[in-house]
Amino acid sequence: MAPSVNIAEYYAGKTLFITGATGFMGKVMVEKLLRDCSDVKKMYLLMRPKKGHSSKERLDELLNFKIFDRLKAENPKLFEKLQVVAGDILLEDLGLSAEDRLLIQEEAQIIFHCAACVRFDMFLRDAVKMNTMGTKKVLELAEGVKNLEAFVHVSTSYCRCELPLFEEKLYPSKHRPEHVMHCVNWMDDELLGHLQPKIIEPQPNTYAYTKSLTEDLVSQYEGKFPIVIARPSIVAAAYKEPLPGWVDNLN
């Protein structure tokens, strides 16, 4: 039997690259890792640049959420472990500068890919670009990471919600991810809008469909580096920590 691993000990000295840190799940994860795995070395957070706002100002915006108040009171020096890298999941090569791309590939050991659009009514082209093509760009970055120990892709337990029983295994999508990515690039809005209901059936919306498609894409990288697919179900307000009832949006 393999020896048990203490989570905090495992993360000690590790460098992480995180997408989607400004989303609900991303905020929760960053706060939890800083508080309970305080010996983590560094976290690089991919954030879209805002005109007239420095990286420090973008980080300050994130840390102004009440979820970080407990850390501010107990150990504010931990925030020094956070570093913003300017980029965008929708841009070529994630919009990373050559310097930042090299930095991540040289230093990161764990990648958490949390960025996604969770709108159920998103037009198929936009959902594919964000959820599937965006993930492909992060996977391509991961291929060049020298000491990658884990690629964690945050999916959803509703990616195959049409199934009566959903097990902890991979379910191939009915379409090849590369074929769908190609189609949304050349089809015009009228044609794609006409075909969209047929393409996504039997799934109820483009969110579930593209999440299933993306799991298929991620599985194609099996053997290149260690991969975890996490499938949260309905995400609700915090039960106890870091403060009871905390939630940053209503859906």
Automatic annotation (TrEMBL):
Keyword Membrane carried by entry: yes
UniProt-listed Enzyme Commission number(s): 1.2.1.84
Record domain Thioester reductase (TE): where: 18-251
Catalysed reactions, semicolon-separated: a long-chain fatty acyl-CoA + 2 NADPH + 2 H(+) = a long-chain primary fatty alcohol + 2 NADP(+) + CoA
InterPro entries xref list: FAR, FAR_NAD-bd, NAD(P)-bd_dom_sf
Enzyme class: oxidoreductase
Span of the signal peptide: none
This protein's UniProt keywords: Lipid biosynthesis, Lipid metabolism, Membrane, NADP, Oxidoreductase, Transmembrane, Transmembrane helix
Topology in membrane: Multi-pass membrane protein
SUPFAM superfamilies on file: NAD(P)-binding Rossmann-fold domains
Pfam families noted in UniProt: NAD_binding_4
Subcellular location: Membrane
Gene Ontology terms: biological process: long-chain fatty-acyl-CoA metabolic process
Single GO cellular component term: peroxisome
Molecular-function GO term, any one: alcohol-forming very long-chain fatty acyl-CoA reductase activity
Protein's job: Catalyzes the reduction of fatty acyl-CoA to fatty alcohols.
Family stated for the protein in its record: Belongs to the fatty acyl-CoA reductase family.
Protein name stated in the entry: Fatty acyl-CoA reductase
